[in-house]
Sequence to fold (244 residues):
Amino acid sequence: MNLSRILTKDAESAGFACKTLDFPLEIETKDVSAAGEFEGYASVWNVVDQGGDSVQPGAFIEGLSRAKSERRLIPMLWQHDRREPIGIWTDMAEDTKGLYVKGRLLIDVDPLAKRAHGLLQAGALGGMSIGYRIPMGGAEEDSKRRGVWLLKKIDLIEVSLVTLPMLTQAKVTAVKNIIESGRVPTVREFEGLLRDVGFSNAKAAAMATACKSQLRGEPDEAPQPTALERFEQSFLAARSGRSN
Fold:
């Protein structure tokens, strides 16, 4: 076990560092109200970020309960800028998927919030990102995956709207680097990229499967005849056999 990494995690608990963790924004533009209300997931369970951290179910419960008892609001920020609050979070709760949040942009009093509202409605914002600290003992190294840390307790500092989630950006860049190095992405890497840029699991799997031969460098198969072409071939073959 990496002792220096554990010490780093414990240092974060003392307030020496505030980390961020990003997730794609799963909000339908039709669900963004004219009053600036929207909802989505600020965090999703068991997703490993570019730093090797993976948030586990139950990680937010203690911290949110403490914030509530202290009457401390979790701010809604723009791009993690503490000078730019743009709204309020009206609901935060864990469910089976992750940390569900519901909020309202203060579009009547803040020009930046109004701008963010327009970007949300246009589908131009890429995600939500959490700013957090890890309390003492809140992170545990995964025994099955080297370099992966399971975040079991998190002190949530803020939740931001961001243009492009670093998690997605990192994976897009990783695939780009693979291609530039002369290697073709594997089927799994390509499928993961498709999910990260917004395709559903089913669509990503179907598209990656359709490209499997190209990704594996296999020669293209001969195109299969259409139903009409098969009918014409059968008709010609039958007519040829009749004339013989």
